[in-house]
Amino acid sequence: MGGDQNNSDDYSEYDSRADKDGGLCDNSSVRDFGQVFLPALYSLVFLVGVIGNGLVVCVIAKNRKECTMADMCLFNLALSDILFVLTLPFWAHYAAVSYWTFGDFMCRVVTVMYALGFYGSVFSIMIITMHHYVSIVCTRVKKIPLRSFRAAVILMGFVWFPSFCASLPTIVFTRVEHNTCAPDFPDGTVWKQFMYLEQNILGLILPLALMIFSYSQVIPVVLRTRLSKKRRAVKIVLLVVTVYFIFWAPYNVVIFLRYLQTLVYFSGCDEMANINLAMQWTETITFIHCCLNPLIYTWVSQKFSRQVLRIMKKWFPICFSYGKCPQISREPSERRSSVHSNSSAVSSPMLL
């Protein structure tokens, strides 16, 4: 993704690439497969991602006066995913016709949105993980006031500044050339290898290592508490780590194969075709993760579910009036106050 911002293979480059015997590779099978498979999947991910993450943004914006640090983290994650999925219609059209038709300016704009959305999502997930760790394990650490303007500014900086820095090489080198929108790295440089390694480290190794470390500390603390829902909380934690690994590991394996390909470890036509096909499959699987983020990080929260139902009742009153939609369960005020007065672990949406 970050290293392949065009979201489809650079077909013209691959068609003209020589194999180890000096002949030219025929990439028509890979291109034909992408023309049928990618537009439909990208369109589906776009629709689900916009609706799901848009609902998260609406709920948090509507309750902005009661926004906590956890809500700010989820808000940034949803914004990142929306920014990311808004580029998918462009990549779907690009895959369908196999050449870029939107001009150099839009190529750069879409690439900026894509790169910032991708890395913004990664850094948001890491910050959510660190927030859970600090809130549950490091209870003696002095907390920043959750509803302060300073906290919002600091959080935005921790998400978007490193995202911009990580995206900068791709943003600088991306241009339209020979009807393709892709990074054009200078010959004789290691920028392409750097981009692949950067994506492996930031896209999988660092977030997964952080999750494993943080949640290995969180689970024992949760199990020692007297929370009645501690088993559910542990299951959610394990779900977060498992889903992230399942959706990101295959893609990062292919990215690493792309890195080895730049070092001429794979130079045969069949090998290159298989890597490109694997890239199309695993990349799309990774895209689906941004649609699951609203479910994983917010819909598991009873508080969020109630807020969603209130919005849905307002938007679709007919559905609720005929009893076709689930009714909003009202939580007694006494129960709410007791929950909020519990340990700081309860402040995490994953444990509500």
From TrEMBL:
Cite the InterPro entries for this sequence: CCR1-9-like (IPR050119), Chemokine_rcpt (IPR000355), GPCR_Rhodpsn (IPR000276), GPCR_Rhodpsn_7TM (IPR017452)
Among the GO molecular function terms of this UniProt record, one is: C-C chemokine binding
UniProt-annotated location(s): Cell membrane
Gene source species = Chanos chanos (Milkfish)
Q: Does the keyword Transport apply?
A: no
Bilayer topology term: Multi-pass membrane protein
This one is known as C-C chemokine receptor type 2
Any one of the GO CC terms? external side of plasma membrane
Question: Entry's CDD domains?
Answer: 7tmA_Chemokine_R (cd14984)
Q: List residues traversing the bilayer.
A: 40-61, 73-92, 112-130, 151-174, 194-215, 236-260, 280-300
User: What Gene3D superfamilies does the database record attribute to this sequence?
Assistant: Rhodopsin 7-helix transmembrane proteins (1.20.1070.10)
UniProt KW rRNA processing keyword? no
Q: Outline the extent of the G-protein coupled receptors family 1 profile domain.
A: 52-297
* Family annotation (PANTHER family): C-C CHEMOKINE RECEPTOR TYPE 5, CELL ADHESION MOLECULE
Primary subcellular site in the record, as a coarse category = membrane
**Cited Pfam families:** 7tm_1
May I ask which residue range the UniProt record assigns to the signal sequence?
none
Q: Which UniProt keywords apply?
A: Cell membrane, G-protein coupled receptor, Membrane, Receptor, Transducer, Transmembrane, Transmembrane helix
Q: Where is the composition biased (Low complexity)?
A: 339-352
